[in-house]
Amino acid sequence: MSAIHCHQLCKTFKQGDEIITGLDHVDLTIETGEFVCLSGPSGSGKTTLLNAIGGLDTPDSGEIHMGDIRIDQLERGALADMRLRHIGFVFQAYNLIPVLSAQENVEFVMQVQGVSAQERARKAREILQEVGLEGMEDRRPAQLSGGQQQRVAVARAIVSHPDLVLADEPTANLDSVASAHLMGLFASLNEHHRITFVISTHDKRVMGYARRLIGMRDGKIISDETQ
Amino acid sequence: MKNVTLRMAWRNLWRHGKRTWLTVGAMIFSNTLLVFSISLQFGSYDMMINNSLQAFSGHIQLQHPRYLKQPKMRYAVPAINARAQGLREQLGMSAISARATGFALASSEERSYGLQIIGVDANHEPLVSTLPGLVKRGRYLQAEAVEEIVIGSVLARNLKVEIGDELTFIGSGFDDSFAAGVVRVVGIFESGISDLDRSMAQVNLGYFQDVFAMQGQGHSIVIRARHIEDVDPLMSSLSITTANLDNLAVRHWDELQPGLRQAIQADMTSAWFMYIVLIVLVAFSVLNTQLMSVLERTREFGTMMALGLKPARLARLIMLETGLMTGLGLIIGIGIGALLTGYLSVVGFSYPGMAEMADKFNLPDHMYPTISTLSLILGPGIVALGSLLAAIYPALRLNRLRPIEAMRAV
After folding, report:
1. Is A136 within 8 Å of A128 (Cβ atoms)?
2. Domain that holds residue A89
3. For chain A: N or C, fewer Cβ within 10 A?
4. CATH number at residue A11
């Protein structure tokens, strides 16, 4: 069974009087456990596609299936539930909750999922250790470097073992060392936890980690290579 | 705190500590003010009731069942002195006094005026009424003396009489006979209550019964309770007792002075208008704080929605933050209010001119707020409710957020 299947996805945006094409009849299938990079210049539709797959945005037409569920037809509440239980997000700007410590940021989503206090504390410590943040559990985001913050965001995204992790330009704000660290972490998590990763980037070094590289331009898929 | 949401809500409050303290400060101020004002209001009502009732009517009266609506001489209580004495023994109280009431035309050498003439038990009347203590010239009635009268200061002025002058009065007796007497003015009282000062006079009950052919009867047995709170239990026990006493009606002060309750209600209404203004101001302060907080954190809320939180959960977070802020204002406000009010309820307080006024009208020279559970929680409870209601609008705004747009917010 495929993790993601998109069929004839279209999405346009209105900018003043101008209509901008975000996605133009995109067909895409991603299998479970794949490590996929979406590449292309700014405005090529990478983020729009990630947002559509993640249920953060609805396409104008077309279908998106995640396993057996057609997510483009889900109600807001059901979409939120699906994101909560099946998808992990890693954002370009980390998007951590500033008043919570690293461990609390990781625990927060689990609390919403209904995990017991003891269980979530244990899981959060374990995952922070796995992403290399042992000893920094009590630090707030402002007390962490960009790379460390992004690793907290990754820990938050994978702690509940989602089926899919969507990462939008996760290394854009990181230096090359931190980028390499993060991508190594993604590759390891993909390998050991069999989590499907879909990463948007225009960083060539990031693309080097991908086992499947999808090129996009003007809302269309222009290349799809397995490395 | 094991609950991450609770920790987040608490810390969110202190992201803008000054702003939170300003709002909490407004709550503390209004809660303190409300606790003090409401306690003072309750205290002043108790004082108002006591002063009014102690002046003349007492807390409870036993009367003929028809006397209240039709105060006619024929609706009398037989053997009133014996009954009053029986009640004193039965209830173990001395503040019980018998009275009889009639109407007469009083004449001095120069003028004539209509007056209400009351026959009182001079030994017990000072225990149920403050009027004997308000005699400013001369003295009050003496039990053994007859043919004496004390009159109100305005009546004395109208009749142009002074201490030692004689008054003649004529009226109608119990048996419709002609009732007339000549009495000497021994005291002039000044109650500050214009009705009493203008038209009331008191004579000894025995003398009244002779002149008005009452044959040992009277019209009311007046009871003064130790405290206003004792009135209702006393009423209950009297209702049982008087079932065996020729079916006398037991009258609560509410029935004897219906205007008093209305005056209190009118005062309460005007005070609550001011309180509501205060509460609305606090609610707007909360609305402003929470609306700002929601607008500033739009991006954060977008992230949380992207992670799978539903708007209802975010709304609960805002309500939780408001609840914590309100709780803080409530606890500190009630605490300060209770300390201040508690202190003043013991030592009391007065305002300039109050002592002179109190001395003149035989009233307490200090006011004492009455602290109670109701006075502690009523005002702050409404402030808390208003604050939570004010937070509903910012909380509902979260329902309009879309994760993508929210995360792009600056």
Report:
1. yes
2. 2-95+162-226
3. N
4. 3.40.50.300
